[in-house]
Structure formats: C-alpha cells, structure tokens
Amino acid sequence: MEKTLNYIESNKDRFLNELIEILSIPSVSNSEEFSKYTLQAADWVANQMKTIGMENVSLLDTGGYPIVYSDWMHAGADKPTVLIYGHYDVQPAEFNELWHHDPFKPEIRDGFIFGRGTADDKGQFFTHLKAVESLIKSEGGLPCNVKIIIEGEEESGNENLPTFIKENADKLKCDVVIVSDTEWFAKGLPTICYGLRGISSMELTVTGPNRDLHSGSFGGAVDNPIHALSRIISQFWDENGKLAIPGMYDKVPELTQQERDAFKKLPYNEENYMKDLGVEALHGEKGFTTLERTWGRPALDINGIFGGYTGEGGKTIIASKATAKISIRLVGKQNSDEVFEMMKSYIAKITPKSIKWELKYDHGGEPVVVDINDPAIKACETAMSKAFGKEVVYMREGGSIGIVSIFDEVLKAPIVLMGLGLPTDNIHSPNENFCLDNFFGGIKASAHFLHEICEVKK
Ligand code: BES
Ligand code: MN
Ligand code: MN
Prior knowledge:
Strand content: 15-25%
Bound molecules: ligand BES, manganese (II) ion
Largest sheet: 6 strands, mixed
Mean pLDDT: 97
Low-confidence stretches: none
Oligomer: single chain
C-alpha cells in the first residue's frame, strides 16, 4: 500500500482537475433538456474507466440513460469480487441568488469543492475510480476482482435499473457491493451507514369544476380543489404526528432498545441542528427522537403543491385543479407499491363527492438495513480507520438509494455503504459541496478496502 499511498499523494492535483471536468457536465437526469449532457457524462465516465486500466468498458442500454460498466478480473478465482456502484446523474440546479457561483463551474473554497454533484455523487464515486487507478499503476494490478457500474437515473427514480440488475444478475455476480453515496455523522467522524429508508413517490391531483370560475359568482357554493386538497393533506397525520393512513405501520418494526441506545451515543446536538436549519422548534411523531424519526420511522412529505393563480397581483378565481407531489419514506418491511395502494384507499375514503381525484404513482424503492457484523463491513471499518486515522461510527440514513434493496435481493452479497459526504454538503440544495479531505481520504480508504476485503472474503 505504501506505493499506492504515495501515488495518491503525488497525483492529488490531477485527480481534482479530473473531478472538476465531470462536475462541469450538467448531467441532470430528470429533465429532457439536459439529456445531451447526461449522455456526455456517461461517455466521460467510460473514458475514465479506460484510462485507469479497467477492462470491458461499455455503455449498457437500460432503456433510459446507460449504465457505464467495466471490470478487472485478473486477481484470481480465489480472490473476492467487489462490485462498486455510483451514479453520474445529478439533481437540477439553477444559477440564481441562492448559489454563490454557477453550480456547473465548480469552485474550491477553504478545503471544499462547491458545485452540483460534488458530494452526490460524482465526488464520491470518483474516489473508487482513482483508487483503482492508483492500485493498478503502482502495484501492477488490483488485489481483488472488481466490477464497476455507474448509472444515470438514480436521481430520477431508477425506473430501468431494477430490471437491468435482475436480467444481468450473472454479469454482476460478486462477493460484496460497495456504495459511496451517503454521509458521515459529522466532520472528522468517519461513518459507515447501515440503513437506508425506502421511498414511495406519487402525485395527487384533485379536480373540482370543469373550468376556473369567478370566485364572486361561485364562491361559497362550489368546492374549491385547493381547499379540498388542503383538507385531504391535513388528514394524513393524527394529533400525535403519526401517519393516519390505515395499514401504514403494519410492517414497521419497533426500534430495539439497543439501537435507540446506539443512536443516543452519537454526538448529536439538537440546538445546533435547529440553529443550522433556522427553526425555533422541531416537529414530528411523538415519542421519538430526531434521529429515530429520520432513520427508523416512516415520514410523509408534500414536496410541492400547485394550483390556481400564482402570478403577480390578484385573480379572483376558484381553480379547476390542484396538485400535490408526495413522497413517503419507508422503513422495515414497508413496500413502496403497497404504501401507494394504502394511500389510494385512504384518499378514496376521505375525499368528498364534490371533488374528483387521481393519484399517480411516480417511483419507489424499498428500505434496507444491512448486517453490521458482516466481515465485509469490518473490512470497510479497518480501511476507513487506516485512511482517516480515526475510529469509525455507525449510523442509519433518512434518504434512499433505490437500487440498494435490489442488490440485496438479487445479488445476495453484503452491501457496504462507505459514505464520504458530510451533513453540511447541501446535497440537492444550493451550494452543494464536498470536503476535499474526504475526497482524498476516500481514495485511500477505497484502496485499503480492496486489500482488506481479501482478508475476509473467499
Ligand atoms: N445520495 C442520495 C441518498 C442520500 C440522501 C444519502 C441523504 C445520504 C443523505 C441519493 O442520491 C438520493 O438523493 N436519493 C433520493 C432518491 C429519490 C430521488 C428516488 C432521495 O433520497 O430522495
Ligand atoms: Mn446520491
Ligand atoms: Mn441525490
């Protein structure tokens, strides 16, 4: 590893410049407008893979944006095979007053690189590519067999990947999966994530009259879809902040005392949490702490709401339609399709005759909790503590990475969530950033991991 670590040290500047290249491609997967760039990012990743010495580099068709695949299988059949996963697509970002610079012209400030995709997920998955390069260039090869898939539809709901994984289970066969797309509990606290919430995402449209009406002529006599939608939404929770949708908690396991205790040991400070968010108080399900609420309990959020007149000045109407975009975070054995059906039944029950409604499914992914006692996780712990010189902590995550549960189900290999982000990364928000210590340390951790895994698998 000595040579590899030296190689990493002496190539830091180039690594960073290469990262800036991929960050400059606005690969926003949820919008047609950017499809040219999303495809360009796939090509860029493929070229990188060739340059670093990966083989069988190919763009695999999924029906949507391609998966960039490559492998290096010369370590021998007695060595484990590691599958590295990441995503080259990013969330949308507009250069407006909320960003201090163009989100697709990355800038480095005080040890952080700023720009869309820096932490989610380009900066993170790139650490593995650079680790592979460093090992091949300085040790003449990799200690274990490696397959890499970097996909382009994570941020738009992974419509095509599950089928792809199922149909290509043989091609992707491996002994362990490693994903860097989560975050540390705090700066300077290397963290392994062992749980992700699932998600069920949908859109509710309610329709009242067949056209917008004059609110003077009709107001008071016709149900206003915006009011109806508000009334529906207000019935999603009971007075204790618990979801009121029948069946919602049927497959939600109780958090164990052991897990609740482990959460309490993490250096969490509620005052700072609130201060950072600019709120005076928190709000959620009674009887649970913030970490329990976000990691171990379901949550429903209205992500956006629209309807009626929202332009300048007034317009006295009763609108014909109103819509809410809804996402529900899932835990335990909750299932995204089942939860959608529960929502449908509940909305049918609570919506008055004066309103027509339609609930459209958008996308979903299932929750996962991995076994932290798996030797692969221990190998990651060793690798991270070697790279960062610190002890590793464990946490769960409120966010979702849709494909991870499919890996679990289809590949039946342990999954290691070696996140490198920080809670201050602003992923999906303005001024997204990635800590350069985590970037360079992450390259070392990945290189260590590819060695350490040989000690525990096969
Ligand atoms: N990398 C995130 C998942 C994540 C979120 C990790 C928060 C750590 C903290 C991933 O790219 C993501 O944003 N997932 C989406 C999935 C959705 C678009 C289907 C999410 O959780 O909203
Ligand atoms: Mn991500
Ligand atoms: Mn994301």
